[in-house]
Design brief:
It comes from Sesamum indicum (Oriental sesame). With about 350 residues, the chain is an alpha/beta fold. The protein has helices spanning about 20-25, 25-40, 65-85, 105-110, 180-200, 230-240, 250, 265-275, 290, 295-315, 320-330; strands at about 55-60, 95-100, 120-125, 140-145, 205-215, 275-285, 345-355. The chain has one domain: 3-Layer(aba) Sandwich (Rossmann fold). It has 11 helices and 7 strands.
């Protein structure tokens, strides 16, 4: 399922390009952190003056937020070179940025929107970031933001009626039985390890990787009764089933291929992988929940993220009704939009590829 969907493309009013300020807000917070880490941690001593410098953004979507991140990263790296000795520095050094996302991503909009004045050459890199995509030891700096909560697939057990983890009547692991949560957690650990292993092959020794990982401030368990977006969507779907707008069987066979980790879990996965040194790991309050405050904007953000996924499974007939109902629900209960109701956080992680 995850392989079959992407953010809503184009540049229209329902597009991800027009509805990603929630994800964009984190860049204001993380910009000085990235600049500091590149200044202090990036090793350029092994590069000759004419070596090109390769950067990749894994999970770039349609580009506007990615372009800002790439500007921050390339500018910090250029400053690093300029402050180095004349032996290392070279005005002719070329930068290459590879924009990665699923093959269904709207790369046309991305490349139409590329900043005309940019210090790098750009290339598309379609494919799942859970697999290797670039030549061995070719990448100097890897980056991913708001992407690593997506799983490579829905855990098989949660859609199997014969499994103890069958997630009947629910679409996520929040508030579900322990078996459901464990199935999601296991799939997440497997997928993050695959991501880390693929990047370990692509990164040069000593190369850096900066990750902005959507997460939760608490570990979800069967006792959780929260107000997450996915909880509301599940509730609306069940109401629609009662009205005959969608079958319960369709809902029972649908689960979101997303998982929100918590800091201790992510750190343990990285340490088990063993390919990296954790240079910095910091929990940031999610600034997106302060940036998107109206019911309309909130519903539009999540429609841009989930519309393609929902359409693939349920068809396009119910999508307008689903997200309009969600908007009306938020307007009727404005306290649901209060930042303190949102338990999401961002985990900033800077990893350095261990020397081989």
């Amino acid at each position: 399922m995850a392989q079959l969907h992407a953010m809503t493309g184009g540049e229209g009013p329902l597009s991800y390009a027009q509805n990603s300020s929630y994800q964009r807000a984190v860049m204001d917070v993380v910009k000085p952190i990235i600049e500091e880490e590149i200044t202090t941690k990036l090793d350029i001593s092994q590069l000759s003056p004419n070596d090109s410098f390769w950067i990749a953004d894994f999970g770039c979507s349609t580009g506007l937020n990615s372009f800002l991140a790439m500007h921050i990263i390339t500018e910090a790296i250029q400053n690093k070179f300029q402050s180095a000795s004349s032996i290392i520095n070279s005005q002719s050094r070329e930068f290459y940025v590879f924009f990665n996302d699923h093959v269904k991503n709207d790369f046309n909009t991305l490349f139409r929107s590329l900043p005309p004045e940019r210090p790098y050459q750009a290339a598309g890199l379609p494919g799942s970031f859970h697999k290797r995509l670039l030549p061995k030891a070719s990448l100097h700096f890897a980056y991913s933001s708001w992407a690593l909560h997506w799983l490579s697939q829905v855990p098989k057990a949660v859609t199997d009626p014969t499994s103890p983890a069958w997630n009947k009547g629910n679409v996520y692991c929040g508030g579900a039985r322990q078996e459901v949560y464990d199935a999601y957690s296991s799939q997440y650990a497997e997928d993050i390890d695959s991501f880390l292993e693929a990047r370990a092959q692509e990164l040069v020794s000593g190369g850096l990787m900066a990750l902005l990982v959507p997460a939760l401030s608490i570990k979800l368990d069967p006792s959780y009764k929260g107000e997450m977006v996915l909880d509301h969507i599940a509730s609306i779907l069940m109401d629609m089933a009662e009205k005959g707008r969608v079958s319960e069987e369709k809902i029972d066979s649908f689960n979101f291929p997303t998982y929100y980790t918590f800091p201790e879990e992510l750190k343990a996965i990285i340490e088990r992988n063993g390919s990296y040194n954790i240079e910095r790991m910091e929990v940031l309050d999610n600034p997106g929940k302060y940036a998107v405050t109206s019911a309309h904007a909130h519903a539009s953000v999540y429609r841009a993220v989930f519309e393609d996924l929902m359409t693939n499974h349920f068809g396009c007939e119910i999508v307008d009704e689903l997200f309009e109902t969600y908007r009306l629900k938020l307007e009727a209960s404005p306290d649901l939009l209060l930042p303190e109701k949102d338990i999401s956080i961002i985990i900033f992680v800077l990893l350095k590829r261990k020397l081989e």
